[in-house]
Write a structure and sequence with these properties.
Elements: E1 5-10, H1 16-32, E2 38-42, H2 50-59, E3 64-69, H3 76-92, E4 97-100, H4 110-125, E5 132-137, H5 143-160, E6 164-168, H6 176-185, E7 191-195, H7 202-213, E8 218-219, H8 227-244
Parallel strand pairs: 1-2, 1-3, 3-4, 5-6, 5-7, 7-8
Length: 247
C-alpha cells in the first residue's frame, strides 16, 4: 500500500522570494524521503493553490493525503483557513481521506536554526559582541500565539544568558524598532534581531527595517530551508499518516 502523499501547505506571499524558499524547503524534504510523493501548495497569493495540488494528486491516483501547515503559531490561518481548505477538498473528492496535522509550531530545535542564522548575520556585519537580543515574529491578534513567541524568546535568552524581548511585525506591540530602542534606553548598544519567520517577505523586511533604523547592529535571515525545519515537517507527516490508518 502506497504511503499517503504529503502536501506542505504555506500561506503564500506576493514576494517571489517566499515561494522560492518554500520550494527549496520542500526539496529538502524530498531529499530526506525520496519514497514519498511530496508537493508544495499555498493558501493564497502564490501558486500552486492547495485545491489545484489536491486535484493533481487525486488524478494521479492518491486517495490519502496528509497536509502539513507550514505555520509557526496557532493563529487565524491555522484555526480557520487550513481546516476550511481541507474540508473543501474532502467535499470535492468523494472517497478522499485527507488530514491536516499540527502546524510546525515553535519547536525547541528551531532555536538551533535561529542561532545559525544569527551567526551568519553577525559574521556579515563583523560583530563580535552582543548585550541584548530581539526575537521578531509576525504577530497576531491571538494573544496565545504571541505568548508562545514570548516563551520561546525567554528560553532563547536563558540559553545565551542575554536579555531577549519578543517583538512583532503586525497586530501587537512592541514593534522591532520599539524593542531595540527600549534596550538602548537601558544603555545597551549591541542589539541583534532574529527573524522568527519561515521565509522572506513584506513582514520580515519591515521588521528588519524598523530594527536597523532604531540602531540594531544585525538582523538575521528567516529560518528558511534548514534541515531541522524539513525534519519537523516529516515528523508532523508521520503522525498524520498514522492517524489515517483505519482503526
Amino acid at each position: 500500500m502506497a504511503a499517503p502523499a504529503l502536501v506542505a501547505l504555506a500561506h503564500g506571499s506576493r514576494d517571489p522570494r517566499s515561494a522560492r524558499t518554500i520550494t527549496t524547503l520542500v526539496d529538502e524534504v524530498r531529499g530526506m524521503r525520496p519514497d514519498l510523493r511530496v508537493e508544495q501548495a499555498f493558501l493564497e497569493l502564490s501558486k500552486p493553490s492547495f485545491q489545484t495540488v489536491v486535484d493533481r494528486l487525486v488524478k494521479a491516483g492518491h486517495d490519502e493525503i496528509v497536509v502539513v501547515p507550514l505555520l509557526l503559531t496557532e493563529a487565524y490561518h491555522a484555526k480557520v483557513d487550513v481546516p476550511s481548505a481541507v474540508a473543501e477538498a474532502a467535499a470535492r473528492h468523494e472517497g478522499l481521506r485527507i488530514r491536516a496535522t499540527s502546524i510546525l509550531g515553535l519547536e525547541a530545535c528551531f532555536l538551533e536554526v535561529l542561532d545559525v542564522r544569527m551567526r551568519e548575520a553577525l559574521s556579515a556585519a563583523r560583530v563580535r559582541e552582543l548585550d541584548a537580543l530581539v526575537l521578531a515574529a509576525a504577530g497576531s491578534s491571538d494573544a496565545l500565539a504571541n505568548q508562545a513567541v514570548a516563551r520561546l524568546a525567554r528560553v532563547w535568552g536563558a540559553h545565551h544568558k542575554l536579555p531577549v524581548t519578543a517583538a512583532f511585525a503586525s497586530s501587537s506591540p512592541p514593534a522591532t524598532g520599539e524593542a531595540v530602542r527600549a534596550f538602548r534606553a537601558e544603555g545597551r548598544r549591541h542589539i541583534a534581531v532574529a527573524s522568527l519567520f519561515l521565509a522572506p517577505g513584506f513582514l520580515p523586511d519591515r521588521a528588519a527595517e524598523l530594527a536597523l533604523e532604531a540602531g540594531a547592529i544585525a538582523v538575521s535571515a528567516p529560518l528558511g530551508a534548514h534541515p531541522e525545519v524539513a525534519r519537523t515537517i516529516l515528523a508532523r507527516y508521520a503522525v498524520g499518516a498514522v492517524e489515517l490508518v483505519p482503526v
